[in-house]
Task: structure prediction
Amino acid sequence: MNTLMLKLTLIIMLIALTFTVFADTLKPFTSDGCSSFPDGTLKQKTLWLSCCQQHDLEYWQGGTYQERLQSDIALKVCVSNVGEPEIALLMLAGVRVGGTPFLPTKFRWGYGWSYPRFYGELTKSELQQVNLLNPPTN
Result:
């Protein structure tokens, strides 16, 4: 029994080492707008689309739990600011539940990186990739 436990422990350690030794490459930024939610109203079809695109940019690069929370709140504020506070609350609930990095969805937190990619600060190398693929606009 001890030999089996030792083998299992070694296998788990090797798998964990694989995820930490090899650097991941960030995929180019993509946005699907508001994912499974409308991009606007029937009269203004893209009313809050820019809010979702900014939110997608933040989700694409990922980061810490606190950064995700701030991103989700910023989405709520943005949609509220275009005059849709009730829609903003629905969207906030949706992204808090559906945007978890623990599911292999195309809209999860950190979707620009290979799955699994959980919460954590981006390294200097990862931030360089983010900046190369999405240079700041001024």
In short: The radius of gyration is 18 Å.
